[in-house]
Every structure is written in structure tokens, then in C-alpha cells.
Amino acid sequence: MALHKTCDGVARRDFLKVGAVGATSLSLSSFLQMSEAGQVNQAAKAKSAIFINLPGGPTHMDTFDLKPNATEEYRGEFNPIQTKVPGIEISEHLPKLASAMDKFVILRGVSHTLAAHRLGSEYVNSGNRPLPSLQFPSFGSVITREMGGPAELPPNVSIPRSNQVPGYLGVKYAPLHTNATPSVGQPFSVRGITLGNGLTVNDVEKRQGLLNKLDTTFAGFEKDSQLLEGLDRFSQQAYSMITSKSARDAFDVSQENQQFAAQYGKGAFGQSCLLATRLVESGVRFVTVSTGGWDTHRDNWNKLKTSLLPSFDEGLSALLSGLQEKGLLESTAVYVTGEFGRTPKINTERGGRDHYPRCMFMLMAGGGITGGRVLGESDANATEPLNDGYSPDDVAASFYHNLGIDHTKEYNTNTGRPVMIVREGDVIKELFA
């Protein structure tokens, strides 16, 4: 997968380092130390979630909020096209999403004030404006705490990595990072689940201090093997994942029906969306798919039309269509966002657009959300919301609501401080109308 750095030097392939424990990443055994699931509204349609993160900050003016009547210094090079839903237009370089417009909602005029990549990312990954004194848990950590997960699969997976962090909830709620993206027709290797590079189950047992002999093909493995005795409950879960064929199969995109998989294309983002579809189908509660490169200060339109938008268009449209085809769209909340938008006024010296949090787009789909609509509106040059607009807090509250989670619920930090899941913001009721 290509290396993408934003202008502040953050490498999007280096969100987290394997084995680091403090911020987010952790060992397989550690991250499985899950507490009992919380209480959720069982009437909610969404039972799992996919969060599509676009690090770098995609331009709203050239994607989902074009202003063809704006003056030249704002308008940009792309033209709008009609979508499947009459009256809704998006960029000409998103034709597949235009055909899938009935499946998702565009939120326009989303606005905040944090123009730095790190702070903006922390904000949209949790729905809480960052504080220097407290790290808020991201969506995946809250959702897996409230909703639990399958016995033999990680409840929270990031492909390949993400800015999702457990915050004050602790590392036991951190995501499992695949650290790679799948390739077409090839079994996908995930450290800690797929045993690659000659590693055998015997090696795993030796590292656990167990003396045994176990066939590396897993044939003959018995559920009640005495080899598991002596492991604590969490290590048993980790061991179960390693030795579970169903867990390995869930991550193996090469097993997907070829005709179904073809719509996702051959690119890294499309294949990551295919993997997300398989994981949700297998019972994984929360999946993050990250695809970077959106920090287009320079050469904005060339990068968008030749690389960024075609792969995004193919992958996201296939994700929505694939979920619907498998009967999963009504039970899967989908949320798409970057950390901010980009300046409506063109940077003519560099041929691009710069950081701009005051106006941006977000996309939502699945669960109780009816697609085929645009909510919110920006002004004539897409410089700010036309009316009140929405905040990342509002969208986060709505995301949780779609999953039956009360965003006003309080957790206690390790110092005993009560903190609401989303401190500000209200559910956008129109999303569920």
C-alpha cells in the first residue's frame, strides 16, 4: 500500500507500531481482555459498524458539494453529474457512487474549527473535541464495550491501521490492526490470526510455555485439548482465534465468490472494503478502513481524478452494494469522513486546496438511515454552513444512536471522573426520518 504523509509529517502507514501498548496497539491476548457488554437499545437496526476514514482531509468542493456557479477562484475543474436520485449532484469522477446514491446520505455543511491533522482526526474519530487532559475513546472501543463481539474473532479491527484509540477505556478495547491490505486472489495474512512465515501452532505453544505437538494443518485439534489448560481466560480467547479455522477464513478474501468480489476491484481500498464486508458478515462488531492521500495542497485535481476518486468511488460503492446484496446493509452502520474539508478558495500558487474545517462533508448509510438524501447545506462558495450546520459531535451522536447506544451515557475514567460518551452534540433526527 502506498505511503501517504500529510503536510505535518504524520505517516498514515505509521499510525501505530506493532506491539506498542500505550496508545492503541497491543498484543492479541491483551486486546481480548473485554469486559461484559453494555446495554444497548435492542430495537436499533444496526448491529455492527464500518468506519471509512479518509486521512488528510478530502475536498468537499470537488466531491460531494460542488458549486458550479461559483466564481473561478472557488469553483475548481470538475463538473457535477446527476445521481440516481433526481436533484442530487456529485462530482463527475464519482460515477459509481452517483449510481448508488439511493443507499447513502450526504451531510453538507459539517463544521468545526480544528485545522491540524492530529487534532481534527482525534475529533472525528471520537466525536469529542480533544482535551489536553484526557484522551477520549474512539468509536470502535465504545461500540465493542457496549456491544461485545464474537468468541473467536476480534470485535474491533482496523484495516490496515487507524487513528482509533481506546483512550481512557484502556488498551483492552484497542483495535486489532491488520497492518496490511488484502491482494486479489491471495490468502490474507494477519499477524496473530494467520500463521505465516513458517510459524506453526507448535511455535505458539512453546512461546506460551506449553509442551505439545499439534498438527500445523489443525487437523485433529480438539476443543477440550489439555494444552489450553493453565492459560487464563484471555489467553484462551487469543489461542482460540489462532487455532480457529472460522477466524482465519473470515480474513481470507480469496475465499469470496469471484463474481461478487469483482465489483470491489483490485486496488488496496476496494479489497479492504471487501475484507470489511466479510468481517461484518462473520460477526465482527466494528471495522475501520483507512485510505489516505487526501492532503492535496498541490496538484489537487490531477491527484483526485487519476488516483484518489476512482479508487474511492469503486471501493465505497462496492461496499454499499455488497452489504445490500448480502442482506447486511440494514444491520450495518456506515460512516465516511476525513478530519476536515479543504479551502473553497483555490491556492493558485500550488494548484490545490488547503486545510479547512469550517465546511466539510460526511456520508452515512445503513441501519435506520434511509439513503438517497442530502442533509444540510453550505453557502454559495461552500465556505460555511448556510444555516446552523452540523458538528462532528452531532454526527457521532447519530452514529451511536444508529447502533442503539445512548451517547449521553457516562463512563468513569481511571481517576473516577464521569465523562459522557459524546460530551456535546445531538442526534440528527432527520437522518432517521
The overall strand count is 14
- Average pLDDT confidence is 86
**Any idea how many domains?**
2
Strand order of the largest sheet: 6-5-7-1-8-11-4-12
What structural category do the secondary elements indicate?
A: alpha/beta
Fraction in beta strands: 5-15%
Quaternary state of the chains? single chain
- CATH fold category name of the largest domain: Alkaline Phosphatase, subunit A
Low-confidence stretches: 12-27, 29-36, 210-234
Q: Quick recap of the structure?
A:
This protein has 433 residues and is of the alpha/beta class. The chain has helices at residues 28-31, 72-75, 95-99, 117-126, 139-147, 201-207, 233-243, 245-250, 258-262, 268-282, 300-325, 392-402; strands at residues 48-53, 80-82, 89-91, 104-110, 156-159, 176-177, 286-290, 332-337, 341-342, 355-356, 360-365, 373-375, 410-412, 418-420.
Give structural notes.
- This protein has 433 residues and is α/β, with parallel strands linked by helices.
- It folds into two domains: 28-186 and 266-432, 3-Layer(aba) Sandwich (Alkaline Phosphatase, subunit A); 195-250, no CATH class.
- Helices cover 26% and strands 13% of the residues.
- The protein has twelve helices and 14 strands.
- Strands 6-5-7-1-8-11-4-12 form an eight-stranded mixed β-sheet, sandwiched between helices. The protein has a two-stranded antiparallel sheet with strand order 2-3. A two-stranded antiparallel ribbon has the order 9-10.
- Helix 10 packs parallel to helix 11.
- Residues 12-27, 29-36 and 210-234 have low confidence and may be disordered.
